[in-house]
Amino acid sequence: MTARTLYDKIWDDHVAHEAEDGTCLLYIDRHLVHEVTSPQAFEGLRMAGRKVHAPDKTIAVPDHNVPTTLDRANGGMNEESRIQVEALDTNAKDFGIHYYPVSDVRQGIVHIVGPEQGWTLPGMTVVCGDSHTATHGAFGALAHGIGTSEVEHVLATQTLIQKKSKNMKVEITGKLRPGVTAKDITLSVIGETGTAGGTGYVIEYCGEAIRDLSMEGRMTVCNMAIEGGARAGLIAPDEKTYAYCKGRPHAPKGAAWEAAEAYWRTLFTDDGAHFDKVVTIKGEDIAPVVTWGTSPEDVLPITATVPAPEDFEGGKVEAAKRSLDYMGLTPGTPLSEVEIDTVFIGSCTNGRIEDLRAAAEILKGKKVKDGLRAMVVPGSGLVRAQAEEEGLADIFKDAGFEWRLAGCSMCLAMNPDQLSEGERCASTSNRNFEGRQGYKGRTHLVSPGMAAAAALTGRLTDVREMM
Amino acid sequence: MTPFTTHTGIAAALPMPNLDTDVIIPKQFLKRIDREGLAEGVFFDLFKDQEFVLNRPPWDTASILICGENFGCGSSREYAVWGLMQWGIRAIIAPSFAGIFFGNCEKNGLLAVDMPADDVEELSWLAQDPATAQIGIDLHQQRIIQGGSNWQFDIPAARKALLLEGKDHIACTLEHETEIATFERHHGSDAVH
């Protein structure tokens, strides 16, 4: 039998129909839904008189719009957001799908709730009307974002019309140095390959440094596969994966678990399987990094200086000029001298318990810089509860951070958590696009530890100085 | 979806690479539960600059965009495609597109053509001169026409057919309902999924 990659195996196990030109109907095991990209899809079903094909495999949770302030139960949501969230309430009820409403302690960012509740399991196909669906690839599940028309297509048919992507391997060899995290890995990979380097590919991340990561860290790595342009990011399941899944509310139990685990153990890339593209990075070469521009590929070690447009070639020269102007940065300035106004810790990239632990470790017994705005938005109500139990919430509050309720918050600023014009933020989120966190807001993407360090000094800071 | 066959219109050049969907339509326009009223959100922040190409005649009536590489990267928001179409855009030509955006175009009948960077650059130069900014696109012939010149483009046959006919993708898939049900019975029986 031909040697197959992990992606080949999952793909082969989900082809429900293949047309002559290779276009397939790919069967979908889990469909995650949130309030922003789904109302038109449900409306489409209603207009055509169609039902949800597999309500049991469809899970919804509002996250993008929901306020994260403690008073959110008593209003606090603007009219448009309220209508969109209520539309999801109604659609979940009308179509009989699993639902975690705003009032439920399990509510949170869809990509954190899915794994937490055991909906995401190895070998599955997982889609959601959200580009960061790549997160679930950490479990060895083929997971990717889709548009609203495709949301409707999956709701109606439980399949997607797909052509197979190419295979790309990203290997991170050896060990990471102290202070270097999953966020630094994933940003460094994008820095190396560019935001379009993964276009047309599904990436499998492998190597010792990836194996050494916790499930939380693996989710951070896969989460940003889309920022590198890839269709999806994957990591083969192992003992850590099984241990994370076991006992989760929707994970299989008893004999079903045994059967599932036996199958999961076949999910790895065979020796000699073909990859169309291979990128190898030494773990020891990765430094704590920060973005300087308005594209996630604008990555540099914190010890570097702001680049000049002349450092680039082709269309990137103009793009760098525009980025530097937007970011208000002067070439040659050490990145560690760039002063910030705000720190945001949260998002589907870095809103899990391990991320909060890493930030709290740096903040313990210290205070944020005077006048700096700092907030922590846990990824889910359960992450929040666990952080409170572990005493992390007190560390954040004592340091001067706002301790919020769960949601997407300032990652995309659809709710009131936004940057104002010119406000500069060290953010653990995933996108530094123009206007992403607020009109003319300036975003520097960093790891949770780096965000915490920046909160203490009021400037972009090398976390290793605080360890 | 809207079929696409042939189209002639003003082309506007937006050559910056990595033009993301947050810039195409910012988050404040994603709060609808229908697909209406999105034209005003398109390139909302860019329109604040009077020099922005789509603010200036003849490009203020453009229906074709000639873009840089990795156009439409970032968020999966289909609002970007709905908004562009409502603004009047019928086709986008670029050296490359982000995957989800490309799929969203296809589902709505917005023609997204990826062509070699040299061809796109040539078209981009032509689009920047009002005298040569009008171009034609013929999907049947897979051809872009400006004056006496033309450029061929590639498109897989299945995609081309869907666009030409404006077919409902869900209806097409439901023709395979029996196969999906068969697959489901087999797939569900192993207690894995």
TrEMBL record, chain A:
Pathway: Amino-acid biosynthesis; L-leucine biosynthesis; L-leucine from 3-methyl-2-oxobutanoate: step 2/4. Transmembrane segments: none annotated. Its EC number is 4.2.1.33. Keywords: 4Fe-4S, Amino-acid biosynthesis, Branched-chain amino acid biosynthesis, Iron, Iron-sulfur, Leucine biosynthesis, Lyase, Metal-binding. It comes from the Bacteria. It comes from Litoreibacter roseus. Heterodimer of LeuC and LeuD. HAMAP family: LeuC_type1. [4Fe-4S] cluster binds at C348, C408, C411. SUPFAM superfamilies: Aconitase iron-sulfur domain. It catalyses: (2R,3S)-3-isopropylmalate = (2S)-2-isopropylmalate. Catalyzes the isomerization between 2-isopropylmalate and 3-isopropylmalate, via the formation of 2-isopropylmaleate. PANTHER family: 3-ISOPROPYLMALATE DEHYDRATASE, HOMOACONITASE, MITOCHONDRIAL-RELATED. This is 3-isopropylmalate dehydratase large subunit. The keyword Signal does not apply. It is an enzyme of class 4 (lyase). Residues 8-458 form the Aconitase/3-isopropylmalate dehydratase large subunit alpha/beta/alpha domain.
TrEMBL record, chain B:
This is 3-isopropylmalate dehydratase small subunit. Coiled coil: none annotated. Pathway: Amino-acid biosynthesis; L-leucine biosynthesis; L-leucine from 3-methyl-2-oxobutanoate: step 2/4. One of its GO terms (cellular component) is 3-isopropylmalate dehydratase complex. GO terms for molecular function: 3-isopropylmalate dehydratase activity. Its EC number is 4.2.1.33. Keywords: Amino-acid biosynthesis, Branched-chain amino acid biosynthesis, Leucine biosynthesis, Lyase. PANTHER family: 3-ISOPROPYLMALATE DEHYDRATASE SMALL SUBUNIT, 3-ISOPROPYLMALATE DEHYDRATASE SMALL SUBUNIT 2-RELATED-RELATED. The gene is leuD_2. It comes from Litoreibacter roseus. It is an enzyme of class 4 (lyase). It catalyses: (2R,3S)-3-isopropylmalate = (2S)-2-isopropylmalate. Catalyzes the isomerization between 2-isopropylmalate and 3-isopropylmalate, via the formation of 2-isopropylmaleate. Pfam families: Aconitase_C. Residues 1-116 form the Aconitase A/isopropylmalate dehydratase small subunit swivel domain. Belongs to the LeuD family. LeuD type 1 subfamily. One of its GO terms (biological process) is L-leucine biosynthetic process. Heterodimer of LeuC and LeuD. SUPFAM superfamilies: LeuD/IlvD-like. InterPro entries: 3-IsopropMal_deHydase_ssu (IPR004431), Aconitase/3IPM_dehydase_swvl (IPR015928), AconitaseA/IPMdHydase_ssu_swvl (IPR000573), IPMI_Swivel (IPR033940), LeuD (IPR050075).
